[in-house]
Each structure stands twice: as C-alpha cells, then as structure tokens.
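Side project, low priority. Logging it here so it doesn't get lost.
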Amino acid sequence: MRRRDALGPLLALAATALFGPGLAGARTPAPGCAPAGAHVIARGAILRVYTTPSAGSTVYACLRGRHTRMTLLAAGAHHSLAVMASSGPLVAFTVTSFGVDAGSVALRVADVQARRVIRELPVGHYIDAGFVGYERVEKVVLGPEGGVGWIAAMGQSGHGAPDYAVHDAATVGEPRLLDEGPDIGPDTLSIAFRTLHWWHAGIEHSALLP
C-alpha cells in the first residue's frame, strides 16, 4: 500500500462505459448492432445497450458486428436499469425495483454473447425513502471473466455522512467484504485485469478478484 498526496482524475462508470483502445492500422469498422432510431444508453468496445421507441422501457444489449441481441430488462412500471460497467461481451448493471416507500437493488452481470445472466446479487435497498435506512451502489467495476467489485454506501437520509463498504464476487460463490469505513473514497474503485484498487483514508488498497 502507498500514500498519495491528492486523488488523480478518476473514470466514472455510473451510466456509460467507455470505448476500449482502438486497433492499430486501417481496418474496416465493424457494423453497428443497435437498430435505426434506437436510443443508445451505454457503449463498450463491442457492446451497445439501448432502448427503442417501439419497445417502451425494454432495455436491450447487442454486440457490434454480430447478430446477437439480449433483453436485459423487460418493460415495466416498477423497475429501472442503470448500466455500471462493461468488459468485452459482458455488462454489469443494476436493477432497482420500486415499492411505495421502499425498494431493492440487484446487481446483474450478463454475458451478451451467450444471452444469459451469469450472476445476480442483492446490493442495495431503501426503506421509507431512505429515512429508516438505505444501501446504495456508488461504483462498480467488471473483470474480463465476469468477476465484479463494487463500493456501497450505507446510512440514513438526513443523518450525516454514510459509511462505505468494498465488496467483490466471482460468478459463483459468496461475495466478499474487502473493506469498510467512513473514509473510503466512494468513486475510487478501479480494476486492472483482475486486481481491484481503492483508497481508504489516503492509502491505496488492492485485492485480487476471486
């Protein structure tokens, strides 16, 4: 672990995954996969997540240059989807299910090439609009084999700053609690291949995804 003087610029993966590095040399671009008129809500190197006017709130994912499409979330009035990270044909996203004053959040990892969800984890909730208590996801990173890490904030609305916890999980097995405390930087989580990095009270920590 090492101490740093100031946080550097950090990548935000909350809503839109960034393109990967371009290929060297002149290549014919791979054709897109989202249909004409689609609203693309997230982009990865080969991945697109989108909705279409004719499908309402249904959310799809597809792979560029391939005839592959997967429904991530069917249309419904009581849930919503947020894309958190992508890695190749894999995408991590949260699904929030709404009640009157309470709700729950699940983190899902989908393999769009195989058209299946390979992991689903309960990662958040709120009760009485958060005044009784809440747990929300602040940052998610995704490994190339489907392992996932995330930072969650926990507290009560109107009752001071939240506590934070760093978790990770493989595609099978129980998730792990890696770190917790009020001084964790909620947006400092990053990944290099399969190694997670985050900052706690000015000290960098790391862990290998299971």
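Brief comment: The first strand starts at residue 39 and ends at 43.
Revisit when time allows.
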